[in-house]
Specification:
- By secondary structure, the protein is of the alpha/beta class.
- Helix content is 41%, strand content 12%.
- Strands 3-2-1-4-5-6 form a 6-stranded mixed beta sheet, covered by helices on one side.
- The model has no long low-confidence stretch (mean pLDDT 95).
């Protein structure tokens, strides 16, 4: 895959402007209607980038590790719906997500697996085309998925990991510190829209969104700590 950067993302914002606008409006309305029943995790940039990459890559199989209340699940399923193809396999130890994903999004394109993915690795499809990780943020889990999950999916799979850059650097002995060390050791470049780590990127993307009329926030949180990269 081509290296992800602001220029490439800007082109994707333009390319999928109309569909993204509809999903943003849907998500904003859904969040307002659900109130405290929905606790979103992804901020706007990382959610939108996830949507845009899924639209562009058109994977037939997406794996989501960690659903919590289903905010990311809805973004992913919206992209698969708009692609007209693809199936999402989600894993979590709790099933809050089930009540928050409506039938229109889930039917025919979603499989939810309740349980610890570490005990259900065999259920991860070997033809995964996009890997999304937002679960346990400890170092131990990061070591596990690097050593076990990454080898279970195809090489070059586009991957994203949440909660890495809440600050300019991740906390010691955290998931973020482990995955960044692994990326460095393997010579893998990554992109982050984190306002703490990469404020220039979010400033440039903000201008693009303003020009496209996509600048009304879906939610007010602005950390965007996710990283995006391709597996070796």
């Amino acid at each position: 895959m081509a290296v992800l950067d602001v220029e490439r993302l800007s082109r994707l914002y333009v390319k999928y402007e109309s569909d993204l606008a509809k999903v943003r409006d849907d998500q904003r309305s859904y969040l307002a209607a659900r109130g405290k029943e929905m606790k979103p995790q992804l901020d706007d940039y990382e959610a939108e980038i996830t949507y845009l990459l899924l639209r562009e890559y058109r994977p037939e199989v997406v794996v989501e590790i960690g659903t919590f209340y289903g905010w990311s699940t809805r973004w992913i399923l919206s992209a698969l719906r708009d692609n007209g193809t693809g199936h999402l396999h989600s894993f979590d130890i709790v099933d809050n997500v089930v009540k928050n994903v409506d039938k229109e999004l889930s039917e025919g394109r979603w499989t939810f697996n309740k349980g610890n993915v570490q005990e259900n690795l065999a259920k991860v499809p070997d033809n995964t085309g996009y890997l999304f990780i937002d679960a346990d943020h400890g170092a131990r889990f990061a070591h596990w998925y690097i050593e076990n999950l990454f080898p279970a999916v195809p090489a070059k799979t586009p991957t994203s990991v949440h909660d890495v850059f809440h600050g300019r650097w991740p906390k010691p002995m955290s998931e973020g510190s482990v995955i960044l060390k692994w990326l460095k050791n393997n010579g893998i470049e990554f992109f982050t829209p984190s306002t703490a780590k990469n404020p220039a990127a979010t400033e440039q993307l903000a201008q693009v969104k303003k020009e496209l009329g996509l600048d009304t926030p879906v939610r007010t949180s602005k950390h965007n700590p996710m990283i995006f990269f391709d597996l070796p």
